[in-house]
Amino acid sequence: MLAESLALSAALFAIGVVGVLTRRNAIIVFMCVELMLNAVNLSFVALSKLYGATGQVFVIFVMTVAAAEAAVGLAIIIAIFRHKQTVNLQNINLLRG
Amino acid sequence: MNYDLLIPGQLLGALTPDLILMGGAMLLMLAAAWRPESEGHQRTVGFGALIVLGITFLSVLWFGAKGGTAGPGVIAMDRFRWAADIIFLLAAMGTIALGIEHNVRDGIRYAESHVLVLFATSGMMIMAAARDLMILFIGLELMSIAVYVLVGINRRSERSAEAALKYFLLGAFATGFLLYGIALVYGATGSTNITVIGERIFSYQLHHNAMLMVGIGLLLVGFGFKVAAVPFHMWAPDVYEGAPTPITAFMASAVKAAAFAAFFRVWIDAFNLVDFAWFAPLWWVAAFTMIVGNVVALSQRNIKRMLAYSSIAHSGYLLLAVLAGSRLGSAAFLFYLLAYTFATFGAFAVVATVSRAGEQGLNIADYDGLWLTRPWLAAGMAACMLALLGFPIFGGVGFFAKWYLLQAALTTQYNLIPLAVLLVLTSVVSAGYYLGVIRAMFMKPRPEDAVEIAATGKLTRVVLGVTIAAILGLGIFPSRLVRLTRSSVPTPPVAALVPQGTTSVR
Known about the structure:
heterodimer; A: mainly alpha; B: mainly alpha; 73% helix; globular; disordered C terminus
């Protein structure tokens, strides 16, 4: 089971990375980041079957941090939306050089 | 004394400075929410934050002077931690002092902006102390999430919001890589403790374990994003440009220093034995970071973008110290971080003064003839530029920083000579843009339509005075600082299971 779990986790992580790199909507990019974090959580849970509780404790920490990050991230996305009326990353291009 | 980290009371004792800072930050958060937003309240909370940082600073000095060791556990008590803490706290004090006046000028009345700096700083102190990847992750996120907010603190500015979004999305992306790296290292070694990882790589013979190698690679990507090393640097110029100037100074100095301190400890303590795996990739990353940072900085017209590329270039120099990885490398690393923090901070303090409300007046052309109207500002900026360049005497401590870095690179067992040559060559390239600013200030006439620069605030004057005095003073008397940094090496926990030398310094 361990190998299958780790393979699934790697696949989910890869999907998340591809999503971040290809999608252009800030919310969807953020969802892909969350997918990456949850893929990591799956790895930790699977590995804690081998090594004991450390992995599961780590998952609790990751979920807490991800929740805090989501709160801040969505607030930032709303701030951008108020300025631009869009969350499409292609239209967010004031800063470049 | 030796702290046994398995006893809760002693663990709290080992975390005293961090707890003082966090407790003070929480009280100030309440104080900030107590009254309605106003300019005066923002100023009061700012001074409160300075006091909290001052107390924390004294406690760190006390711990550093007293010395102490820690048993096996999640927290280090070595002087590397205290030296790094001093750098973070100095940068945080400068940020708040600049921020109080900058907020008044830009009409930012959120007293919370200063409290967030305190939270970010406590995250950094946790990172510098962490001897466990779990603690490191918590510290990193405590720092990052506070800084995401700080970048976007100017809610009226579209650029600030855009910088916050970019920093947030790329920062969270990098966190994903870092975390997956931690998971795979945990999978290979069965522990998240940095010291235990180092021991198990040795005892389990994991030198060619694929899972460990992939994990180290992902950690390298994650840290590469956080320290803005090429090719993971794309976010830095945009975010540095869009963020309020004091926050940019904070990111270029303290945030970068914290990421580097954690990076250094993990690499030296945990992955020392598998250096053949990461040495070549890190070598190339350092080389490209030096080249790209310096060459692209030449073509920048906005001074904050130029300083952003300069800070990328300095990441490359610091990576050289990580590669050297020895006792000398650690000393050169801390010395360089301190010198670089002072120089960057002084430069951004001048930038904050010369710029106008609404983030105007940030082009290098706005510095034309500055010497004729504001000679002291021009002289201060010149000292910072020369320190970043590593110029002898007038650049003060910057020269010695590069000197010790080269010395560390040339005395290791590794072949770092090509990189040392590259450091010197790219420093010559960097003269092109550092001296360009000096030429604009001293040798060009002040344009007739130039906007008059507002008077420098008192706090900004203090920050500038202290940084310039430190740059020049430490340039004349560097030996004491050198002794201090030489004794501040990451040390393994007392009573570790394997003999010393396999996990600590080479």
